[in-house]
Design brief:
Order of helices and strands: HHHH
Helix content: over 70%
Distance between the termini: 95 Å
Low-confidence stretches: none
Mean pLDDT: 90
Structural class: mainly alpha
Largest sheet: none
Oligomer: single chain
Radius of gyration: 33 Å
Length: 153
Amino acid sequence: MAVEVPARRRSAGVAVTSSALAMIVLVLTAVAIVSALVTRSSATAADRSRVLVVDYADARFAVSQEESLERKYRVEPGPEVRALHLDAVHALDAAMRQVSLHGNAAEDVQAREIIKRNAAYVVSVHALFDATDARDTALALKIDHEQVDPVSS
C-alpha cells in the first residue's frame, strides 16, 4: 500500500528543497567571485614582483658598470670611458626611478636614498677622474680611499 502525501506537505517539501538549492547556488557563486578576486590580486602581486626583479637587475648591472668604468678610467683615462661612466650613472638613476614607481613605500624611500648616494658618488668620482687626468696619482688614491670608497660602500 502506498501512502499518499497530502499536496500541502508535498508543496512545502518542494519549496524547502528549492530554497536549499537556491541557497547552494548563491553560496557557490559567492565562492567563485571571492576566488576570482583572490586570484586576480595574486596575479597582480606576482606581476609587480616580476617588474621589480627586472628593475633591480638593471640597477645591479648599472652599479657594476659604474665600478668597472671607474677602474678602467684610472688605467685608460679618456673621454669615451668618462662618457660610458656617465651613461652608467644615468642607467642606475633610471632603474631606481623605476623601482620607486613600481615598488611600495619602503622601496620608494630606498630608491630615493640610492639616487642621492649615487649623486654624491658621482661628485667624488669626477674629482678622482680629474686627479687621474692631471696624473696626480697620490691625489687620485686619496680621493678614492677617502671619498669614493666610503660613498660607494
